[in-house]
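New here. Invent one.

***
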Amino acid sequence: MESRAILPADRWLEHLEFHIRRFQASESPESVHQLRVAAGRLSVWLELGGRRALRDDLRWLRRRAAPVRDLDVMFGKGRSSHWDDLLRVQRETALEELRTALEAPRSASLSAGLQFVPAPTLDLARAGLRRIRRRVLSAGDRLGDDERDPNVLHHLRRRIRRLRYALDWLGDDAAEIKAAQDTFGAMNDMAVELRHIEAHAGDTALDEHRRAVQAEYDRLRLESIAAWHRARPLLRERARNR
């Protein structure tokens, strides 16, 4: 007898479609953020069912929205009006690219295709959760080699985010991993801003701003590593028991 299924994708598919429409009407920062969240959650839902179809399309959509979201996070913090002026120009270019993507047939086909994907069975989803948990632990093990390597930290952050979404889909406790996700996310915001600042390396008007962002990144990096070390024992225990 087949196991019961986990939640269908309906809620987050509706969320995605709503915020695509909202973006097209207002281009609000919140709509950009929410369509990326919805795409990420739907990708994990597909992964829990062992499905590859449409995951590339969801990744494509997230990547098209990412530059706008990054600029929105950096903008308007009151640190530097000069920096805000530079970001405003970049956002216009990023917005045009996102508009084009959302008007493309690929975007409409993605929404249509997701409607016909059945929810994975609970047994299949549990197996998918175990795979995702193992990948998080493997990414965390790499952190021991160099806690300063931004690529290792970035990889672990993405794995943590997918685990949090997987736990949510299954209705499992995600409090500890969500705390890690939040600190890693804040750290990543600073890492992204540093990369943008480095693109203007010759602009001495940004020197003070650069120092402030670097200091915040250093603080959040340590907080993120500490949050991971708090979450890891629980993940290892669950990996052994399930």
In short: The chain has nine helices and no strands.
